[in-house]
């Protein structure tokens, strides 16, 4: 039976259909409308509220888009459980353990309300204009505040921060400020595939540096500089991608000391810093005069929120970044940072991050329970990606068997810069729709791993 739901429309200047959706959202959140409740027919509700049928129909459509209700032809519209609002749907094809993306349902649950708040901001229309090349001051201040409280970058200076369209663009801007085609650039022996793609596109000669359990080795870095003449080093000190390793404070200080002695420029990718609360301070705090610090929110708030930041080590370096920005995009996009900045300022970002950390920890624990000692680490319980060390041949076999079984892992060759040094399989935990799907994928990997181990045994 349909509920005799007669909502009280909130006051405001928003269109009536939007206020009706907000009344529905509030009643679902408060429990006044429980999961599974059938909403009244649109014509009946329009009559009771004295509204046009088109207005109510529009509200029901928008409510379904927001995940508040599910509509069934011939049966009506039914209230979804609060926990299901914004929940991702399973995609067709293999279970995705290959893409390192943030869980998007915490952000999806609040994006509708956020858009309602944004439309009432007096500066909303300002975002239709070109922003300054570094971004709006309010956005830059918000970004610096976020780096300070989410990733321990307590001295982040907004005056040397430039906003950009995601951390990948931030890396491109930083490299473009200090390297030219043909230059040697150093990085970890296995690194983020985006750095490899950037080097290939820009014509840099990428050289991998040996690693240990803490990441980049200072002695190997010094030797690589002597061998290549490189002056630029890309490094991921926290939850290194793909291995998930974290540099200790002593190791970071040693890398900073080598950089000073050899006059190196460090490009620090700290996109996963927010997943490791309590990690040592970023390299940009230890060697601020020579470190470009790159981060963003796509890995911690929502993948489609293309809001990144790069902090330059000097005013001159910032100006080189802005010259590149003006050349390739004229100005950073304003609306991604508008949403991110709103969330940072009102505390929503902290809530989303806390939910993502909690769910990521549960997923990492699930992976550990299924794969056990095959996993190296993880360095922290909230690691969004896990590393299974093995030879290149074993990794390719595992990836192939897993894919045939219905689970896709990160291609083993994707992160490798120096073959034969750091090899294995990376498992990304965030793309699976839920833990049930993740568990299914992990068990496929476990079965594939057992088969690879069996094939590796010598037969006489």
Keywords, please?
Aspartate Aminotransferase, domain 1; Arc Repressor Mutant, subunit A; alpha/beta; 44% helix; globular; 7-stranded mixed beta sheet; 3 domains; two-stranded antiparallel ribbon; Aspartate Aminotransferase, domain 2; transferase; 460 residues; Tscrpt_reg_HTH_GntR
Description:
The protein is an alpha/beta fold. The protein folds into 3 domains: 69 residues, Winged helix-like DNA-binding domain superfamily/Winged helix DNA-binding domain (Arc Repressor Mutant, subunit A, Orthogonal Bundle), CATH 1.10.10.10; 122 residues, Aspartate Aminotransferase, domain 1 (Alpha-Beta Complex), CATH 3.90.1150.10; 219 residues, 3-Layer(aba) Sandwich (Aspartate Aminotransferase, domain 2), CATH 3.40.640.10. The protein contains 15 helices and 15 strands. Helix 6 crosses helix 11. It starts with 15 loop residues before the first helix and ends with a helix. The model has no long low-confidence stretch (mean pLDDT 91).
Topology, please?
Blueprint lengths: L15 H15 L11 H8 L3 H13 L3 E4 L3 E4 L15 E3 L7 H14 L18 H15 L9 E4 L2 H12 L5 E5 L4 H10 L2 E5 L1 E2 L2 E2 L1 H11 L3 E4 L13 H14 L2 E5 L13 H4 L4 E6 L11 E4 L3 H14 L6 H12 L1 H24 L13 E5 L2 H14 L1 E3 L14 E5 L6 H22 L4
Parallel strand pairs: 3-14, 5-6, 5-9, 9-10, 10-11
Antiparallel strand pairs: 1-2, 4-12, 7-8, 11-12, 13-15
């Amino acid at each position: 039976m349909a509920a005799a739901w007669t909502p009280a429309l909130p006051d405001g200047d928003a269109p009536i259909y939007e206020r009706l959706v907000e009344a529905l959202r509030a009643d679902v959140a408060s429990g006044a409308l429980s999961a599974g409740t059938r909403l009244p027919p649109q014509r009946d509700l329009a009559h009771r509220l004295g509204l046009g049928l088109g207005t109510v129909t529009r509200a029901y459509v928008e409510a379904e888009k927001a995940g508040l209700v599910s509509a069934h032809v011939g049966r009506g519209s039914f209230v979804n459980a609060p926990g299901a609002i914004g929940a991702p749907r399973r995609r067709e094809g293999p279970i995705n353990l290959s893409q390192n993306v943030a869980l998007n349902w915490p952000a999806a649950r609040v994006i509708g309300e956020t858009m309602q708040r944004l439309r009432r901001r007096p500066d909303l229309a300002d975002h239709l204009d070109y922003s300054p090349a570094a971004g709006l001051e309010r956005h830059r201040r918000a970004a610096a505040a976020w780096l300070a409280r989410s990733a321990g970058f307590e001295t982040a200076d907004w005056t040397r921060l430039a906003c950009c369209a995601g951390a990948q663009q931030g890396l491109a801007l930083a490299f473009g400020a200090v390297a030219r085609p043909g230059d040697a650039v150093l990085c970890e022996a296995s690194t983020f595939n985006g750095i490899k793609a950037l080097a290939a596109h820009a014509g840099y000669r990428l050289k991998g540096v040996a690693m240990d359990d803490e990441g980049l080795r200072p002695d190997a870095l010094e030797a690589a500089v002597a061998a290549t003449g490189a002056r630029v080093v890309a490094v991921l000190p926290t939850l290194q991608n793909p291995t998930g390793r974290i540099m200790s404070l002593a190791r970071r200080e040693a890398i900073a000391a080598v950089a000073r002695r050899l006059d190196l420029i460090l490009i620090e990718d700290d996109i996963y810093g927010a997943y490791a609360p309590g990690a040592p301070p970023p390299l940009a705090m230890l060697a601020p005069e020579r470190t470009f610090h790159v981060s963003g929110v796509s890995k911690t708030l929502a993948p489609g929120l293309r809001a990144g930041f790069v902090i330059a080590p000097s005013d001159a370096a910032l100006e080189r970044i802005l010259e590149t920005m003006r050349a390739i995009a004229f100005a950073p996009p304003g609306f991604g940072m508008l949403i991110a900045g709103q969330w940072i300022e009102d505390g929503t970002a902290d809530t989303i991050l806390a939910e993502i950390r909690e769910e990521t920890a549960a997923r990492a624990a699930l992976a550990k329970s299924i794969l056990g000692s095959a996993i190296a680490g993880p360095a922290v319980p909230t690691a969004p990606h896990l590393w299974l060390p093995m030879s290149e041949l074993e990794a390719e076999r595992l990836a192939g068997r897993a894919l045939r079984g219905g689970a896709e892992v990160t291609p083993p060759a994707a992160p490798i810069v120096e073959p034969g040094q750091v090899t294995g399989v990376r498992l990304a935990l965030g793309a699976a729709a839920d833990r049930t799907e993740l568990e299914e994928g992990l068990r496929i990997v476990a079965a594939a791993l057992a088969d690879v181990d069996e094939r590796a045994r010598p037969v006489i």
